[in-house]
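quick one, two chains, predict together pls
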Amino acid sequence: MTRDEIRTAVFDALTSVAPEIDPVRLQPGTAFRQEFDLDSMDFLNFVIALHGRLGVNVPEADYNQLATLDGAIDYLASRLST
Amino acid sequence: MIEFRMPALGADMEAGTLIEWLKKPGDTVARGDIIAIVDTEKGAIEIEVFDDGVLDRVLVGPGQKTPVGTVLAVIRQSGEPAGAPAPAEASPAASVAPPEPAAARPRASPAARKAAEQLHVDLASVAGSGPGGAITVGDVERATRAEHPIDVERATRAEPVPARGPAVPAGADRLSAMRGAMAAAMARSKREIPHLYLSTTVDLTQALTWLRAENERRPVTERLLPVVLFIKAVARACAEVPAVNGFWTDHGFAHGSGVHVGCAIALRGGGLVAPALHDVDRKSHDVVGRELGDLVKRARAGTLRSSEMSDATITVTNLGDLGVDAAYAIIYPPQVAIVGFGRSVERPWVVDGRIEPRSVVTISVSADHRAVDGRGAGSFLTAVERALGAAVQS
């Protein structure tokens, strides 16, 4: 899976949780949880949505690696390649 | 004959607008069935019926704004002849067109429902473009412009996927109406209720360690959030100290008929609702977690039910995600207590005479001093702390 495909999956997962998010506004290095005011339930739903789209089960201990768009793509790419 | 009245869906509701009937005269109804959708400042609410019987006739038609307590319909109990005289004040709106059958009720955001009502669009004839095929405001507007053809498949789909409300901007009107209703309820609360406030800071380390281990072995879809432990602990403490679980009425304190925990839920795009999770004291963490997830989803999609809007016997607000240390909340009348949770944070803590880093949370209770005194509220708070400790042993 390419980074672009992963990026699309992350966008889809985010907008499924917070439909008002405009992916164009998403800066690669910004912590989107604060930026878009996602609470812990929103974030859990985001992780569930990622699991549904990519089949990656992100353990709680790795949540901090999903803080930014770039971080999330890096993390998911490495999980998908193993 | 039983009168089915416009319910009060919270202290801040004075009137509601009937959007649609989901049953028509002659239909059998059973306790708990959703028979109508009513638009309120809090969004479109699904109205449940409290009795078994047959819908005899409806007295109020779609689009009518009616005060709380107005008879909306008459329900015939088994054995009663059809069309018996109305038991009470016959509404001038007695003759209305028979409502559409319920089967084809499409999912739509509250804003879309409102737009459809204003533009006289039948939602069943609109094809949804929102998440899961739900109808958005844009769809409704397009339908009026283009005289959208009826989408039969959409209209007859048995189980449409719920929309997520905020996909559609809630609209300035809705937000200001909701804000106004909340302002009235909170002003009334502060004017009438002598609040007393107590708080305690609780060591959560053991509970969070248990939760972490639990979540590690669970699939992602079954993970529990700390707030589930909080809500469950509040419910257990309510069962132990029932003086905080109920309502203040003209005749004094009335115990709740169960422990129904209102959960303050912020809506994306603004606004706040506090629908109830029912009988939390008797449910497992897993069930409470699942139901909370569903409740938040439906609160944001605008598909809450009347019982959820009116049954809460105590409310929980969790502002920990915002990073605040503690939350001292305003009681939602006619309830007599609200419990506030701040963030879980590591602090130096004295354990067995030594300083250790521990995860702690500050829990507050605001209580109605007419119903409960400081001693009772204090017992309740220590019961919440005990219940949080007990969570890890069950």
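The radius of gyration of chain A is 11 Å.
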